[in-house]
Amino acid sequence: MMGGLVIDTIRPGVQFTPDAAKAYRRAEAQLGRDIDTNSTLRARATQLRMYNAWQAYVTGRGPYPGHSKALHPDDPLAFHTKGTALDSDDWTDPKVVAVLAENGFIRNRLYIKGEEHHFEYLRDRDRNYGKPIPTRRKTEREIDMRVIFNTQDKNDETRRAVVGELTFHVQGPGASKNERNLWGDVVNVDAAGWKSALDMVNTRRAMNGLKPLRGIRGETPTPNV
Description:
With 225 residues, the chain is an alpha+beta fold.
Protein backbone atom coordinates (compact mmCIF):
# COMPACT_ATOMS: atom_id res chain seq x y z
CA MET A 1 0.00 0.00 0.00
CA MET A 2 1.03 3.61 -0.51
CA GLY A 3 -0.82 6.54 1.04
CA GLY A 4 -3.82 4.32 1.71
CA LEU A 5 -3.92 3.03 -1.88
CA VAL A 6 -3.86 -0.68 -2.65
CA ILE A 7 -1.13 -1.03 -5.25
CA ASP A 8 -0.29 -3.84 -7.67
CA THR A 9 3.33 -3.90 -8.86
CA ILE A 10 3.66 -5.34 -12.37
CA ARG A 11 7.43 -4.85 -12.55
CA PRO A 12 9.83 -2.33 -11.01
CA GLY A 13 8.59 1.18 -11.77
CA VAL A 14 5.22 0.02 -13.15
CA GLN A 15 2.56 0.19 -10.43
CA PHE A 16 -1.21 0.72 -10.54
CA THR A 17 -4.34 0.24 -8.51
CA PRO A 18 -5.71 -3.33 -9.00
CA ASP A 19 -8.27 -2.50 -11.73
CA ALA A 20 -5.76 -0.44 -13.70
CA ALA A 21 -3.10 -3.14 -13.27
CA LYS A 22 -5.43 -5.81 -14.68
CA ALA A 23 -6.24 -3.57 -17.63
CA TYR A 24 -2.56 -2.90 -18.25
CA ARG A 25 -1.75 -6.63 -18.13
CA ARG A 26 -4.54 -7.34 -20.62
CA ALA A 27 -3.18 -4.68 -22.95
CA GLU A 28 0.34 -6.12 -22.82
CA ALA A 29 -1.01 -9.64 -23.35
CA GLN A 30 -2.95 -8.48 -26.42
CA LEU A 31 0.13 -6.76 -27.81
CA GLY A 32 2.38 -9.68 -26.95
CA ARG A 33 5.06 -7.42 -25.51
CA ASP A 34 5.85 -4.93 -22.78
CA ILE A 35 4.52 -1.42 -23.26
CA ASP A 36 7.31 1.15 -23.16
CA THR A 37 6.23 2.79 -19.91
CA ASN A 38 8.35 5.39 -18.14
CA SER A 39 6.08 6.66 -15.36
CA THR A 40 3.06 5.30 -13.48
CA LEU A 41 2.36 5.69 -9.74
CA ARG A 42 4.14 8.62 -8.09
CA ALA A 43 4.56 9.38 -4.41
CA ARG A 44 2.98 12.66 -3.31
CA ALA A 45 6.42 14.12 -2.58
CA THR A 46 7.62 13.23 -6.08
CA GLN A 47 4.58 14.83 -7.70
CA LEU A 48 4.98 17.95 -5.57
CA ARG A 49 8.64 18.24 -6.51
CA MET A 50 7.75 17.92 -10.21
CA TYR A 51 4.95 20.49 -9.81
CA ASN A 52 7.26 23.00 -8.12
CA ALA A 53 9.92 22.52 -10.79
CA TRP A 54 7.34 23.04 -13.54
CA GLN A 55 5.95 26.17 -11.90
CA ALA A 56 9.45 27.61 -11.59
CA TYR A 57 10.01 26.97 -15.29
CA VAL A 58 6.75 28.49 -16.55
CA THR A 59 7.23 31.60 -14.40
CA GLY A 60 10.81 32.06 -15.57
CA ARG A 61 12.37 31.25 -12.19
CA GLY A 62 14.03 28.02 -13.18
CA PRO A 63 15.31 25.88 -16.09
CA TYR A 64 13.24 23.35 -17.99
CA PRO A 65 12.84 20.51 -15.47
CA GLY A 66 13.16 17.71 -18.01
CA HIS A 67 9.48 16.78 -17.96
CA SER A 68 6.23 18.26 -19.27
CA LYS A 69 3.41 19.81 -17.27
CA ALA A 70 3.00 18.42 -13.74
CA LEU A 71 -0.13 19.04 -11.67
CA HIS A 72 -0.18 19.69 -7.94
CA PRO A 73 -0.64 16.37 -6.09
CA ASP A 74 -3.92 17.64 -4.57
CA ASP A 75 -5.37 18.44 -8.00
CA PRO A 76 -8.27 16.04 -8.78
CA LEU A 77 -6.67 15.41 -12.18
CA ALA A 78 -3.30 14.33 -10.72
CA PHE A 79 -3.90 10.71 -11.66
CA HIS A 80 -0.26 9.66 -11.25
CA THR A 81 -0.65 9.98 -7.46
CA LYS A 82 -3.83 7.90 -7.65
CA GLY A 83 -2.15 4.95 -9.40
CA THR A 84 -4.30 5.25 -12.53
CA ALA A 85 -2.04 7.00 -15.02
CA LEU A 86 0.87 6.06 -17.24
CA ASP A 87 3.31 7.91 -19.47
CA SER A 88 4.46 5.88 -22.47
CA ASP A 89 6.99 6.42 -25.23
CA ASP A 90 4.80 4.09 -27.32
CA TRP A 91 2.28 6.92 -27.80
CA THR A 92 3.36 7.23 -31.45
CA ASP A 93 2.31 3.62 -32.17
CA PRO A 94 -1.38 3.62 -33.24
CA LYS A 95 -1.77 -0.07 -32.32
CA VAL A 96 -0.57 0.52 -28.76
CA VAL A 97 -2.84 3.56 -28.38
CA ALA A 98 -5.83 1.56 -29.66
CA VAL A 99 -5.19 -1.41 -27.36
CA LEU A 100 -4.69 0.86 -24.35
CA ALA A 101 -7.96 2.66 -25.17
CA GLU A 102 -9.81 -0.65 -25.50
CA ASN A 103 -8.64 -1.48 -21.99
CA GLY A 104 -9.61 1.86 -20.48
CA PHE A 105 -6.35 3.82 -20.74
CA ILE A 106 -7.50 6.98 -22.47
CA ARG A 107 -5.28 9.68 -23.88
CA ASN A 108 -5.12 12.68 -21.50
CA ARG A 109 -8.59 14.23 -21.48
CA LEU A 110 -7.06 17.71 -21.46
CA TYR A 111 -4.94 16.59 -24.41
CA ILE A 112 -2.70 19.62 -24.48
CA LYS A 113 0.43 19.86 -26.59
CA GLY A 114 3.30 18.08 -24.89
CA GLU A 115 1.05 15.59 -23.06
CA GLU A 116 0.51 13.14 -25.90
CA HIS A 117 2.36 10.46 -23.92
CA HIS A 118 -0.06 10.60 -20.97
CA PHE A 119 -2.87 8.05 -20.50
CA GLU A 120 -5.43 7.74 -17.69
CA TYR A 121 -7.35 4.63 -16.69
CA LEU A 122 -11.13 5.10 -16.65
CA ARG A 123 -13.01 1.99 -15.56
CA ASP A 124 -16.19 2.99 -17.36
CA ARG A 125 -14.21 3.13 -20.62
CA ASP A 126 -12.61 -0.31 -20.11
CA ARG A 127 -14.37 -2.52 -22.65
CA ASN A 128 -12.64 -5.61 -21.25
CA TYR A 129 -13.29 -4.97 -17.57
CA GLY A 130 -13.76 -8.22 -15.65
CA LYS A 131 -12.52 -10.42 -18.49
CA PRO A 132 -9.65 -12.85 -17.80
CA ILE A 133 -6.18 -11.79 -18.83
CA PRO A 134 -5.34 -13.74 -22.03
CA THR A 135 -2.20 -15.79 -22.42
CA ARG A 136 0.48 -13.50 -23.70
CA ARG A 137 1.31 -14.10 -27.34
CA LYS A 138 4.95 -14.36 -28.31
CA THR A 139 6.44 -11.95 -30.83
CA GLU A 140 9.66 -11.69 -32.77
CA ARG A 141 11.09 -9.74 -29.84
CA GLU A 142 11.01 -12.85 -27.68
CA ILE A 143 13.39 -15.80 -27.85
CA ASP A 144 12.36 -19.45 -27.75
CA MET A 145 15.00 -22.15 -27.39
CA ARG A 146 16.15 -22.83 -30.95
CA VAL A 147 19.14 -23.45 -33.20
CA ILE A 148 20.13 -20.58 -35.48
CA PHE A 149 22.40 -20.82 -38.54
CA ASN A 150 24.44 -17.79 -39.63
CA THR A 151 24.33 -17.88 -43.42
CA GLN A 152 27.11 -15.28 -43.66
CA ASP A 153 29.67 -17.14 -41.52
CA LYS A 154 31.83 -19.42 -43.71
CA ASN A 155 33.30 -21.39 -40.79
CA ASP A 156 31.24 -24.55 -40.39
CA GLU A 157 32.36 -24.91 -36.78
CA THR A 158 31.01 -21.53 -35.66
CA ARG A 159 27.96 -20.78 -37.79
CA ARG A 160 25.43 -22.57 -35.59
CA ALA A 161 24.25 -21.64 -32.11
CA VAL A 162 21.67 -22.84 -29.63
CA VAL A 163 19.83 -19.75 -28.39
CA GLY A 164 17.63 -19.56 -25.32
CA GLU A 165 16.32 -16.85 -23.06
CA LEU A 166 19.58 -16.62 -21.09
CA THR A 167 21.97 -18.70 -23.23
CA PHE A 168 23.79 -18.38 -26.54
CA HIS A 169 25.99 -21.42 -27.16
CA VAL A 170 27.89 -21.76 -30.45
CA GLN A 171 27.75 -25.34 -31.78
CA GLY A 172 29.73 -27.45 -34.22
CA PRO A 173 27.81 -29.29 -36.95
CA GLY A 174 27.67 -32.61 -35.02
CA ALA A 175 26.18 -31.07 -31.91
CA SER A 176 23.76 -29.11 -34.05
CA LYS A 177 22.18 -32.34 -35.33
CA ASN A 178 21.45 -33.45 -31.78
CA GLU A 179 20.07 -30.07 -30.80
CA ARG A 180 17.83 -30.04 -33.85
CA ASN A 181 16.11 -33.17 -32.56
CA LEU A 182 15.30 -31.27 -29.37
CA TRP A 183 14.43 -27.81 -30.67
CA GLY A 184 13.34 -28.32 -34.28
CA ASP A 185 14.76 -27.16 -37.59
CA VAL A 186 17.57 -24.65 -37.77
CA VAL A 187 16.46 -21.04 -38.30
CA ASN A 188 18.56 -19.23 -40.90
CA VAL A 189 19.74 -15.75 -39.92
CA ASP A 190 22.17 -13.25 -41.37
CA ALA A 191 25.00 -11.63 -39.40
CA ALA A 192 22.66 -8.92 -38.11
CA GLY A 193 20.18 -11.56 -36.92
CA TRP A 194 22.98 -13.45 -35.18
CA LYS A 195 24.05 -10.29 -33.34
CA SER A 196 20.45 -9.41 -32.53
CA ALA A 197 19.90 -12.81 -30.90
CA LEU A 198 23.05 -12.42 -28.79
CA ASP A 199 22.05 -8.87 -27.83
CA MET A 200 18.60 -10.09 -26.77
CA VAL A 201 20.12 -12.84 -24.64
CA ASN A 202 22.41 -10.32 -22.96
CA THR A 203 19.51 -7.95 -22.35
CA ARG A 204 17.59 -10.76 -20.64
CA ARG A 205 20.70 -11.70 -18.64
CA ALA A 206 21.15 -8.11 -17.46
CA MET A 207 17.48 -8.02 -16.38
CA ASN A 208 18.20 -11.10 -14.26
CA GLY A 209 21.42 -9.74 -12.74
CA LEU A 210 23.71 -11.95 -14.87
CA LYS A 211 26.91 -10.96 -16.65
CA PRO A 212 26.77 -10.59 -20.45
CA LEU A 213 27.96 -13.37 -22.72
CA ARG A 214 30.81 -12.37 -25.02
CA GLY A 215 31.12 -15.63 -26.91
CA ILE A 216 30.62 -19.34 -26.34
CA ARG A 217 29.48 -19.08 -22.71
CA GLY A 218 32.08 -16.31 -22.43
CA GLU A 219 35.00 -18.67 -23.20
CA THR A 220 35.91 -17.67 -26.75
CA PRO A 221 35.24 -14.62 -28.92
CA THR A 222 32.01 -14.45 -30.83
CA PRO A 223 32.86 -15.27 -34.49
CA ASN A 224 33.45 -12.31 -36.74
CA VAL A 225 31.66 -12.30 -40.07
